[in-house]
Specification:
2 helices; alpha+beta; 3-stranded antiparallel β-sheet
Length: about 80
């Protein structure tokens, strides 16, 4: 997984926008990694030259909703 995340150093903007990007106040992209049933989506944003990982979700999980975000913020 660390190798996968390290690829974001070079060209993070090559990753597609996440399905959920519209519910975030900033652009959110996703990086897929893994194979078949073990595929994960790494949701991240880019600020200046820094990549911030926001969430790691299994590919079978439904996209995040505004309610999910509010619940997650309440846990933090």
């Amino acid at each position: 997984m660390n190798e996968c995340i390290a690829t974001l150093q070079e060209q993070p903007r090559h990753c597609k926008l996440a399905v959920e990007h519209e519910i975030f106040p900033e652009e959110v992209r996703q990086l897929l990694y893994g194979k078949s049933k073990n595929t994960y989506r790494l949701l991240f944003t880019i600020r200046d030259t820094t990549v911030y990982v926001l969430y790691l979700r299994h590919s079978t999980q439904a996209p995040l909703t505004v309610n999910d975000l509010e619940e997650l913020e309440g846990e933090a």
